[in-house]
């Protein structure tokens, strides 16, 4: 009975972490992004994260709107640059818990390089990638994550490019935590997000989400619900599955689960240990290039 | 005996049907009534079966529905239950 909600306070529990004046959302009926936001909101509450010290950064796209609906310090950045912005945010204020919440087009296509290098550096970020397998907001063009044979605006005869296996990419680059769920797996996603919020290092969660308007309509799904039902049928939970086996192929089982959970010193820890005593000198002197050859007053003009 | 109930903010609903489809005890159905935007919000067809698990709330992409446990399941809380509004009243209160 610990989950008993006071009957006198009849408000949706997630409203505590949402900007209620911004709702209804812009998302289409049947879109799964709002479902992932539910899981995220419950995970935020379950993890006990200090909401005053949590920031959310998102890029451009349908999923990029999430930052505007969550009652945290929110940043809606330029296309693909959510991770660089979050990196700067984390380095300037290491106390913050920084969450990047963005779409597949933003994170893996235009921002693909940033994703690789943030994982390599092991920046202390939680990256939630809502994968709807298409560039939805710009009109349904084929994205790097569009599975083979899927039809889109730019691939009317079916996509013939093999899709990007994002978990394998971030695993190879060195992420600490890699998981994939779908919008159907709300409870598992909440648990995964709670776990990831408590962990340090680069954490990556991919969430497959229905896009009824632009992906589903052209690929034989009548609405978002049909796509959710397919996730229910096709998803196979395989925790610890090798990430090279989890690529998404049309009509084949979708492997979901927690694939990677390892500990590796993050960027800030490595920087502090390597700089040793110099770290505090630099931190006290403020932002600078670290070159103090020109005297104690300051370094160069920076 | 219902162990829980749901509250619907009808004006937020976009009628996607996730809550209806994934309710473990099949309590909900889309109503024939329209909200202001022309969608059919869900309503309870079998309120007795509701366990208050809030899975509908987890699935709702528009934060329009949530389930809650009613105090009747907890024997010690029976006196407090009289102060709580009945679920039907609560639903009406949320419906603008």
How is this structure best described in words?
- The complex is a heterodimer of chains A (302) and B (96).
- With 302 residues, chain A is an alpha/beta fold.
- Chain A folds into two domains: 13-264, 3-Layer(aba) Sandwich (Rossmann fold); 267-302, no CATH class.
- Chain A is built from eleven helices and eight strands.
- Chain A starts with 32 loop residues before the first helix and ends in a 17-residue tail after the last helix.
- Chain B has 96 residues and is of the alpha+beta class.
- Chain B has a single domain (4-94), classed as Alpha-Beta Plaits (2-Layer Sandwich), CATH 3.30.70.20.
- Chain B is 23% helix and 17% strand.
- Classes of the chains: A alpha/beta (302), B alpha+beta (96).
- The interface between A and B is large, with 37 and 36 residues.
Can you lay out the helices and strands and say which pair or pack?
The complex is a heterodimer of chains A (302) and B (96).
Chain A: H1 33-47, E1 54-58, H2 66-69, E2 73-76, H3 82-92, E3 97-103, H4 104-110, H5 112-121, E4 125-131, H6 166-173, E5 177-182, H7 186-198, E6 203-208, H8 212-216, H9 224-234, E7 235-237, E8 254-261, H10 267-275, H11 277-285
Parallel strand pairs in A: 1-2, 1-3, 3-4, 4-6, 5-6, 7-8
Antiparallel strand pairs in A: 5-8
Helix pairs in contact in A: 1-7, 4-5, 5-6
Chain B: E1 4-8, H1 18-22, E2 28-30, E3 42-44, H2 55-59, E4 65-69, H3 78-81, H4 87-94
């Amino acid at each position: 009975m610990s989950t008993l909600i006071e009957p006198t306070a009849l408000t949706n529990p997630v409203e505590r972490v949402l900007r209620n004046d911004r709702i209804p959302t812009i998302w289409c009926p049947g879109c799964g992004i709002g479902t992932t936001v539910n899981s995220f909101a419950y995970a935020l509450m379950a993890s006990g994260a200090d909401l005053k010290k949590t920031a959310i950064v998102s890029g451009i796209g349908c999923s990029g709107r999430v930052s505007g609906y969550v009652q945290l310090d929110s940043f809606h950045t330029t296309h693909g640059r959510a991770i660089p912005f979050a990196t700067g945010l984390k380095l300037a204020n290491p106390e913050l818990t920084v969450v990047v919440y963005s779409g597949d087009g933003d994170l893996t296509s235009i921002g693909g390089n940033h994703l690789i290098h943030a994982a390599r550096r092991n920046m202390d970020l939680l990256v939630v990638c809502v994968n709807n397998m298409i560039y939805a907001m710009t009109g349904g063009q084929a994205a790097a994550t569009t599975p083979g044979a899927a039809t889109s605006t730019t691939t009317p005869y079916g996509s013939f490019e093999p899709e990007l296996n994002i978990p394998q990419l971030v695993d190879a680059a060195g992420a600490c935590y890699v998981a994939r769920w779908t919008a159907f797996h709300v409870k598992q996603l909440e648990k995964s997000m709670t776990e990831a919020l408590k962990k340090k290092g680069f954490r990556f969660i991919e969430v497959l989400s229905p896009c009824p308007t632009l992906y589903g309509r052209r690929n034989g799904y009548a609405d978002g619900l049909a796509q959710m039902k397919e996730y229910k049928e096709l998803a196979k939970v395989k925790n610890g599955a090798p990430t090279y086996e989890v690529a998404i192929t049309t009509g084949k089982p979708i492997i979901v689960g927690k694939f990677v959970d390892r500990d590796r010193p993050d960027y800030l820890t490595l920087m502090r240990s390597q700089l040793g005593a110099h770290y505090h000198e630099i931190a006290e002197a403020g932002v600078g290039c670290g070159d103090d050859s020109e005297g104690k007053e300051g370094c160069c003009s920076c | 005996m219902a162990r829980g109930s749901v509250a619907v903010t009808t004006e937020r609903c976009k009628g996607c049907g996730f809550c209806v489809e994934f309710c473990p005890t099949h309590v909900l159905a889309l109503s024939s009534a329209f909200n202001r935007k022309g969608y059919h919000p869900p309503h309870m067809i079998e309120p007795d079966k509701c366990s208050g698990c809030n899975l509908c709330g987890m699935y709702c992409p528009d934060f329009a529905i949530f389930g809650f446990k009613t105090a009747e399941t907890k024997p010690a809380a029976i006196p407090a239950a009289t102060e709580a509004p009945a679920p039907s009243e609560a639903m009406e209160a949320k419906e603008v």
